[in-house]
Amino acid sequence: MKQAVDLIFPKNLIREPVIYQMTREVPVVFNIRRAKVNEKVGEIVLELEGTEPALSAAAEYLKKRGIKVQPITHDTFES
Known about the structure:
It is a single chain. This protein is α+β, with helices and mostly antiparallel strands. The chain has one domain: Alpha-Beta Plaits. The protein is about 25% helix and about 35% strand. It is built from two helices and four strands. A four-stranded antiparallel beta sheet has the order 2-3-1-4, covered by helices on one side. Strand 2 and strand 3 form a beta hairpin. The mean pLDDT is about 95.
């Protein structure tokens, strides 16, 4: 299953390897579709691939780290 998500990173997490750390704990594969980062905020659109429970766990991991996670419903992929 694939899901596109829009991630908004707060200033304090811009330089942290949060996506890498997520993939060390959650069995998902990611593809960066778009990214825009400056000194105040970071926005990344990711395509995540994995099982439904893994996708949910990935979103929860990111939210717990302080990242705003928005599913992109018009860009949801079928498995």
